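Weekly structure sync, notes
Attendees: PL (lead), two postdocs, one rotation student
Agenda item 3: pending single-chain targets
PL asked that the sequence for the first pending target be pasted directly into the notes so everyone works from the same version. It is reproduced below exactly as submitted, 489 residues in total.
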Amino acid sequence: MADSEETYRILGITACPTGIAHTYMAAEGLTQKGKELGIPIKVETQGSVGAKNVLTAEEIAKADGIIIAADKNVDMSRFEGKRVYVTTVTKGISEPEVLIEKITSGEAPIYHSGKKAAAAPASGEKDSAGHTIYKHLMSGVSHMLPFVVGGGILIAIAFLLDGSAAGTSSFGTSTVVPAFFKNVGGVAFGFMLPILAGYIAYSIADRPGLAVGFVGGSLAASGMTFASIMDSTVTAVPSGFLGALIAGFAGGYIVLGLGKLFDKLPDSLEGIKPVLLFPLCGIFIMGLLMFLINPVVGAINTGITAWLNGLGSGNKIVLGLVLGGMMSVDMGGPINKAAYVFGTAALASGDQIGQEIMAAVMVGGMVPPIVTALSTTFFKNRWTEEERKAGVVNYIMGISFISEGAIPFAAADPLHVLVSCICGSAVAGALSMAFGCASPAPHGGLWVAAVLTNWPMFIVALIVGSIVGALILSFWKKPLPPEESGLEK
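Predicted structure, written out during the meeting:
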């Protein structure tokens, strides 16, 4: 970090949905490019552990402008009257010089907050409808993950400690210790749907949307309907992950609609809007909505679950191949996240097939960094000295399920790297399904191997897929001249 007394010409904020890799890669890209251009840049990272290298009011006042490279909403209220350029976190990684020039050339517009504090796409690049939905969805998913990971692993530990009761109704709770893990994990896991819906709504409508989304997610988890509350013999069928998604988006836009309606009220009522009108009206409307859609979405979920459980081994392998390959298409981008969200949704069903899908998704996402690591290790003449040094780190990135470790290599040579990684990930996902590997945890890579079903074969799937990808990449990619590779002839 630079000296705190240094005057920064440009400031930045980077943030990605999961706050793990893209956030810091974009920050490094902007900082390094600034050094090359002789322009001091300070970047605040809003990662999974909170904001680091936070921008001060004095730094903001002195700066020429601010670059916001983020795939989630960022509080912009502190940048009133400053030049601000808003773009995606991917542009921070791939086009840092272009973003810096937006500020230095004066092209970035002056930001005026008006009534809104959240980042508006109009401050930089126009957001497509798809990317806007993606940002809201990932806001919910990123806040949900800690509950799913922590709760899922604790529940898995309960089963590991209770092997003697396997196959019985008390499995996981037959003695005090496993029962402790099972109950604590179950409570954490139970927050998944309310958190997902709550933070999607929060992303759309800011703080007033949070309570409405939470309630919608809880109703999705309960499966309550008008029929079930009137007749105790009617079984409530939770609308699950899909219901929580609907609740999150509906909650956010319900609150936005109420905000427009309440703007017509006298200014004297301004103080009661956030504490009375938004929660009262919003939760009431959300309740009506969820009671109506729960039976429909619950039936859809039941049908999807039955279809997944009825898949033959051949169909499972194809599903694993497709999901595994998707994890390498854009490594942390929308297609990768679509496969990942499908995995977490399947995991939320609580069925064995859901855990098998999650394992296939996870192993597919672990392959890309290991493909590049293997290639740089065993086929050195295909890579520069700098790339070979970076490749070593990707062994750790890969086993930790951080797909983004392969991004610098893919950016430099997208055709060879992406196609090779997609092939390797598809093979790994298919093998994981074929071997019946299952993961109760949606993240962690090999660090959660102890709770994986058939973990030895999960490792085999990872190794085979990584080797396939590395061989395709290394034999397809032409050797570099000695002066580029830094190797002797």
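Discussion points:
- Residues 10-123 form a domain with the Rossmann fold fold (CATH 3.40.50.2300).
- The chain has a mean pLDDT of 85.
Action: rotation student to compare against the earlier draft before next sync.
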